[in-house]
Structures are given as C-alpha cells and as structure tokens.
Design brief:
Number of helices: 6
Helix content: over 70%
Number of strands: 0
Order of helices and strands: HHHHHH
Length: about 170
C-alpha cells in the first residue's frame, strides 16, 4: 500500500519537472524568434519540450489522483475540491492542445492569425502564473523555490522579449 508521504514526493517532483520543461519551452520559443537563422533547430526543441511538458504534467495529474486515492480525497478537498481540480485539468488540456496545434502549424510553415497568437500568449501567461505563484510565494522555504522562480521568470522573459522588441520596431 502506498503511503501519502511517498505519493506527495511524486506530486512535488512531477510538478517541478513540469515547470522546468515549461520554462525550457518558453526559452526555446523565444530563442527561435531571436535567432531566425536556426528556426528548425529551435522548432524541434520547442516541440520536444512541449511534448515533455504535456507528458510529465499528465503524470503529475495521475500522481495527484493517486494521492487522492491514498488520502480518501483529502488533498483534493484541501485545495478547491473535485470540481475545481477537474476544471483545471480540462482547461489545461484544452490549452496545451491549442499550443500543440500551433506548434504543428508553425513547423508546417503556416502563420496563425494575430487573434490566435494573442490567445496563445494569454494561455502561456496563465500557465506561467500558476507555476510561478507555487514557487514565488514560498521563496523563504527553500533555495529550490528561488531557483525554480528564477528559471520561470527567465523563461517568460526570453519568450516575451522578441515580441516586445518587434512591437517597438
């Protein structure tokens, strides 16, 4: 029989790994815009990191469900309840499916509409906010939270910098 402490470690490490992969995806997306001479190399990395992020976050969801089974749902009820968690899961998969489709179009050389691009930037910022609040609000607890926060901030900065640079002309 699994113990709650063991499963909790799995929840924590899958969330941290997921955050690192997401930050890497943001960095690769930003680098592709900064160095357009190597778009295929960054596109491949961007797609691999996004696939890794989706896979690891799916494992994270599975470990959260396992923890719910071990704790008779106490972990879920302490953090918003079942409706909240199911809603978050559905929104997450809806968002990452849109991101995956965008990457597929980008690799095929297709350009998305400005509205679609703005929507995806909003999706990315929302996912980023969920991650960064989890670490930034607990900086005093661990040096790991400081490092995770800094990596997430750097990933978003690299992602957004080309967009801000292009707007200024």
């Amino acid at each position: 029989m699994l113990e709650a402490e063991t499963v909790t470690i799995g929840v924590q490490w899958t969330a941290r790994t997921s955050a690192l992969l997401f930050s890497g995806f943001l960095g690769a997306a930003g680098m592709a815009a900064l160095w357009p001479a190597s778009p295929l190399r960054f596109a491949v990395w961007r797609r691999r990191l996004l696939a890794g992020f989706i896979a690891v976050h799916s494992i994270h969801f599975a470990t959260v469900l396992t923890l719910a089974a071990v704790t008779a749902g106490a972990n879920v009820m302490e953090r918003g309840g079942w409706v909240f968690h199911i809603g978050v899961g559905l929104l997450f998969y809806g968002a990452v499916i849109k991101l995956w489709q965008q990457e597929k179009r980008r690799l095929a050389g297709q350009v998305s509409s400005p509205g679609t691009r703005r929507f995806l930037v909003l999706v990315i910022i929302i996912i980023w906010l969920v991650f960064v609040q989890a670490y930034a609000l607990r900086l005093a607890l661990s040096g790991l939270f400081v490092v995770m926060s800094l990596l997430l901030i750097a990933g978003l900065a690299v992602y957004l910098f080309p967009m801000l640079r292009l707007r200024r002309g």
